[in-house]
Amino acid sequence: MLAASPTLRRTFPTVLRKRVGHLLRQERAQSTVLSKPEFNRGKSQIGADYVAAKTACKTQVDNARDICIEEAKGKQKVARANLQYAYSGKPGDLTQAEEAKAKAVYEVAKEKCDDLVGNDKSVCAKEARAVEVKALANARMVGKIGDTQREGVLDKVDADYKVAAEKCDTLAGEAKASCVASAKTKFGKP
Questions:
Q1: Residue 33 to residue 44: CA distance in whole angstroms
Q2: Which of 40, 54, 159, 175 could crosslink 171 through cysteines, CB 3.0-4.6 Å?
């Protein structure tokens, strides 16, 4: 019986804290793969790629050049956001990476609309905007999923606390009060 064993009573919260900590670290570790030097090399490479892409755009004329430049800018912004997420692993950075993709696609599509005239140009702009709005909504959902994972871990801790508190109900008097106080301390409850 868990409540009867003093050893289990002392080690259970430690095991739980370690498990919750492990789950949170594991979530972060799954997305964090870059060291600081790798991150810095990545930033340098992104800058070099952008300069090369922008230089390649100089051979084009008129709106084709503008589209090429927007594509280069978009690739740079997306690459930077992805690099930041790969380095930090934060859900907010993942959201920013997804938002950067959506905005880059929109900027290129908007620039392509400049080749059109009249109603076709207006329809093109509205379609580009609709695609951006949908992509931004999807990007924000990705970030909320990361928050939901954290909430899930907290829900598990709450469930374990309720189990521990329920086990205290089998006791009476000072033993019950001590058990409840111990459970609150173990699971960080006020």
A1: 18
A2: 175
More confident: 13 or 95: 95
pTM of structure: 0.58
How would you class 137 by CB atoms within 10 Å of its CB: exposed for 0-12, middle for 13-18, buried for 19 or more? exposed
pLDDT-derived band at 154 (thresholds 50, 70, 90) equals low
SS (H, E, C) the chain: CCCCCHHHHHHHHHHHHHHHHHHHHHHHHHHCCCCHHHHHHHHHHHHHHHHHHHHHHCCCCHHHHHHHHHHHHHHHHHHHHHHHHHHHCCHHHHHHHHHHHHHHHHHHHHHHHCCCCHHHHHHHHHHHHHHHHHHHHHHHHHHHHHHHHHHHHHHHHHHHHHHHHHHHCCCCHHHHHHHHHHHHHHCCCC
Supply 43's token pair.
Answer: 């930033």
Task: Please name the residues in contact with 68: beta carbons below 8 A apart, sequence gap of 6 or more.
Answer: 53, 56, 57, 60
Residue 172, both tokens = 């009476």
Compute and round to an integer the Cα radius of gyration of the chain: 27
